[in-house]
Amino acid sequence: MNEELTERLRTAAEAHQPDRARILARVERGMSGAPDRHREPSGARPWPRVALASLAAAGILAGGGFAVAAIVQSPPARPDVPATPAAPSAPGTPDPTPSAPTTGGPTAPDRSSSTSPSPEASGGTGPARPGSAHVQDGPLWSAGSLDAGSNTYWAQSNITLRTTQPLTALTVELRITQTGGVQSTGSWRTLPADDFTVTVQHEGGALVYRWILKPGRTVPAGQHVFAGQYNHAAGAREAKHDGYRVDATGPRGALSVWGGFTPPR
């Protein structure tokens, strides 16, 4: 039974109004023995007819009531409708990408010597400041000392170099702080004089000696000495403010050493 037929039956049942008066009239006529439009032949007994009419009326009323009740109370048939699947839940918002954690690189190893280098060591040809020293750089080693022949009016400062490899460039600087009466009296070196350009001048409150290797010349491996000689005011002279610096070039690149002067032995 489809939905349209069910709806039509429901409408007809709701609209049906049994003619109770007519039914009761027929029952009364049957009980009173009044003739109907169609008379029964003579000799027929009236009671069975009346009983049958009553039963028929009751059956009609009952059947109509049951039919209406069944139609009205019966729920309409529902077509098979597939269940609508539940909407999937929205996916969760992903966590933001964490910032890649910042990690510092390894600390560069300290390549300095045990003695802190001078601030001037990073550039220029100035010697180390007083109290600082960097006496060895790879194949190059150095030492500063006051000559044993120094006296109360005159002194000599020696710079000793040792190199295990030949040097293709070399600049040696000796700085004697002006403590009163300091004047140059000469200089010398153990290497050939013609291989160097030598200058002596006053700079920034000091007497400065420079030996510069000429282009195309080479300093051989070995030990070499550079010395500056000078007068000074009478009395014992304090050399703690004097210093030296050496810049060179060897087979593996640039080399630098610097330091001060030890008193004579």
Summary of the model, kept short:
This protein is an alpha+beta fold and 265 residues long. 20% of the residues lie in helices and 29% in strands. The longest helix has 28 residues, at 46-73.
What does this structure look like?
By secondary structure, the chain is of the alpha+beta class. The protein is built from 3 helices and 10 strands. It has 2 domains: 3-33 and 48-73; 121-259, Immunoglobulin-like (Sandwich), CATH 2.60.40.740. A hairpin with a 2-residue loop joins β1 (136-137) and β2. It starts with a helix and ends in a 6-residue tail after the last strand. Strands 1-2-3-8-5 form a 5-stranded antiparallel β-sheet, with no helix packed on it. α1 crosses α3. It is rod-shaped. 20% of the residues lie in helices and 29% in strands.
How are the elements arranged and paired?
Blueprint: H1 3-15, H2 20-32, H3 46-73, E1 136-137, E2 140-146, E3 154-163, E4 169-177, E5 183-189, E6 196-203, E7 206-213, E8 222-231, E9 243-250, E10 253-259
Helix pairs in contact: 1-3, 2-3
Region (Disordered): 1-22, 76-142
Keywords: Membrane, Transmembrane, Transmembrane helix
Transmembrane segments: 50-72
Computed structural class: alpha+beta
Give the overall pLDDT as a whole number.
73
User: How many DSSP E strands?
Assistant: 10
Beta fraction: 25-35%
Keywords: Membrane, Transmembrane, Transmembrane helix
Keywords:
20% helix; alpha+beta; 10 strands; membrane; 265 residues; five-stranded antiparallel sheet; transmembrane helix; transmembrane; Immunoglobulin-like; 3 helices
